[in-house]
Amino acid sequence: MKQRFGWHVLVFLAPALLIYSAFSAWPLADTLRLGLYATDEHGGVAFAGLANFQKLLFDPQWFESFRNAMRNNIVFFGIHTLKGVRGTATYRTVLFLPTLLSVVIIGFTWQLILSPLWGVAERFLGLFGLADWFGPWLGMENTALPTIALISVWQFVGIPMMLIYAALIAIPDDVIEAAQVEGASPWRIFWQIRLPLILPTLGLVNILTFVGNFNAFDLIYSVKGASAGPNFSTDLLGTLFYRTFFGYQSQVGSATMGAALATLMFLVILSGVALYFFVIQRRLQRFAL
Question: Rounded distance, CA 193 to CA 203, Å?
Fold first, then answer.
């Protein structure tokens, strides 16, 4: 007997579908469309095809800004993937608390802590005889981006920590007990049982971190402003998009160029997600099995 389609399901899906379409799908489609137009010196908008993308990728000035922001995003993401996530219940609570704080509060607080004039970081390092290691890390080109990335790790490490911890405690006790009866060492149990079973969760954490990092904007903006100084050393795709779309100081904003840049950001994130689902996730599942 042919099963009838439950049309009543659409009644429950319609509100969510309308909200998603109005505030997510339609703005994304309109951004992709706007990237194909160009603004002339009089403010008129005309269809330009792929001219904006050619300018972003082949014009030396635009490409240098895009390449710098892309490289910084990769470094920003790489630092996030090196975080550790273990500890007692109290340790887990302390690690999770920063996720509840506003990014503006976090940016302002760390600027105070790391300030060479009135910050407490230099005095704290002095307690361990490391005062000579202190420097204006947020003000130097070679240390500003890693410093902000570590601040971001401190803020968001609680979420992947909870996901990985949940995956670890979901491993059946009888599997671990059977391995112990067979004489397996704790190190071997970790590498051959625990790690393979939590690989899908590790992959999910990495892809969520990837998407979040390539959309990062707020922490950079709250600490270094839209200029992403010093000398654009902390410039990410998000801050580059902000300056391109809205304009900043002497840079004139362009909605069409901003849309083109947003389209490239979307394609980069889409490529990373597609690589994860069609290549990495399949290998992780086969390895886990």
Answer: 17
